[in-house]
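Run: sequence + 4-O-methyl-beta-D-glucopyranuronic acid -> complex structure.
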Amino acid sequence: MSDHAGLWTDYKEKKKNRNSVCLGKICISGAEKTDTIVKNAVDELKKGLMAMVGLEPEIVYEDHTVNSSTVCSSGREILDSEEYRISIKDNSLIIEGKSPSAILYGVFDILRTVACEKEVEKSYAEGKTVRPSDPLRMLNHWDNMDGSIERGYSGDSFFYENDEIIINERTRDYARLIASVGINGVVINNVNVKSAASYMITDRYFDKLAQLGEIFAGYGIGLYLSLNYASTIEIGGLDSADPLDEKVIEWWKIKMAEVFKMIPALKGFLVKADSEGRPGPFTYGRTQADGANMLADIVKEYGGIIIWRCFVYNCRQDWRDKKTDRARAGYDNFMPMDGDYHDNVILQIKNGPMDFQIREPVSPLLGGLRKTNQMLEVQIAQEYTGHQIDVCYLIPEFKEILAFKTYCREQDDTVADIVSGKTFGSRYSGIAAVTNTGNDFNWTGNYLAGANLFGFGRLAFDNDLSAEQIAEEFIRMSISADDGVVSEIKDILLPSREIYERYTCPLGIGWMVKPATHYGCSVDGYEYDRWGTYHRADHFGLGVDRSDKGTGYALQYNEPNASIYNSPEKCPDELVLFFHHLPYTHVLHSGKTVIQHIYDAHFEGYDEAVRLSEKWDSLKGKLDDEIFENVKERFALQLENAREWCDQVNSYFFRISAIPDEKGRQIY
Ligand code: GCW
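>> structure
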């Protein structure tokens, strides 16, 4: 394993650019030579160029124009400060930036160019200016202090062991790895803050957190912590966590003064409250805004922000009441207080109203909220999408989400516009991913799942990159620069999300997963769960009526989305069972009936998964054996999984509908 000990860093000897003149002398302009981030950037540049083309560049520095200690206090300023430009002058490369982070991102741009074996001169001859799309580009770790990871499929946490924080070479390598794709914020502990994690804000962990914060700060990455909303009770000895209770407010004031003093690099907190058993303001009859604002007002003097999750629903609701609908909860709980949140609160909104299914409609909060800072939350931990066993490249899905028109305004109304801060001129905005990393040697379990970590960072930095461009970069940098191999692996990654959807939960129905683990098929696993029904299948049809005749969820969208989703005839096929209860004989836009689509999607989805596996087999001997075997052994498991899904779903719906497959395929 090469020095980078990372995913994208098997810097094999690169033939191109070995004689590149302009790599011989690189000029850094706009940031202090002595700045830690700049020093780390230069270190990366030297290591990478030596490893790839055997070159030791001469580094020179131009007068810097901006004080590198500029504190960016808003999204706009973050974007201004992180923009970089690379050009060529007098046969040397010039990296210009207004901040040390900009220089760091420029360096990684050059290293990607060399790693992908593009011509350096050609790439920068015209000058290349890149301005990040999203101000906050964050990873959320659901890592627990005992070393386990909730929804983790890549080994144990590299942050914790036996309730202690680990700091070692891997910590630094992780900072390098995620900085190399432009991540500038990391939440290092699980949003379900339990047991020892509640003590993260005590002197038991301050020293290690201060060290960790410094390491991340050296790569332009802000440190954030998930906060236990009931800390006043769990560690403070109070009997309340009521945000309007003077004793509670006083406790937090003293606590936050201590925390920000002891962890200088700390940027803020992520809060999951009133959700899945977690305490929160609802417990005291207060609003979510009361809860978030109380904390925000206190951390404001330290430049802190409160990122407040909208994943709030009553997990004890009575699903037998036809109007009860888990999908409505986010909008019902957060829209009424639009504009009540203070300006250092950011609402973090899951991409869909339910829970990271292989396909969901975009949350109506995105485009609903107009006066509140917002962040998009996606999941690259493959909780419902194959556990980093099944190949499921999620960047195409994220592109769809970002491109979604919300109609909140005449223009600049896509999700990408909103989370970039452009639509409403938000003070803060951005995108977070529940990360898929762990202590596995390749960080992500399945080597190909690395494309989701790599891709999330690249897409958050540049929303205009295509899923194909990102896949190509990932493959060339970490697996092979052979055009044939790159093409084959792209042909595996690009369709993999739709293939997974086809052999699991097509037409937007989602779920049907094994309870608790969420891997593998159980059609009724969640159907009769207290949290609401998920497919409502009967002898005549299936799907959940979320139109105005049902739960009314469709009407939470702006027009014309509301009318489109509200009508079975207008609703797009891929979401039609999320919004409507339809007979098996309902004819889709595709011309197929619902039941025939279910049969075809599952049989074909399985066959397509087999073909992906065969494509991978054809690469034997053309790439690193370790990578080949890592993915091959998972493909074997994926095909078992796909077969299970295909057989179970087709049998279930054949038996319940008694409608045979038009193509006469064997269904038991
Ligand atoms: O996706 C679900 C998961 C939980 C997770 C929760 C959340 C961290 O099943 O494991 O808890 O949602 O997003 O908070």
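>> summary
The radius of gyration is 25 Å. The chain has a mean pLDDT of 94.
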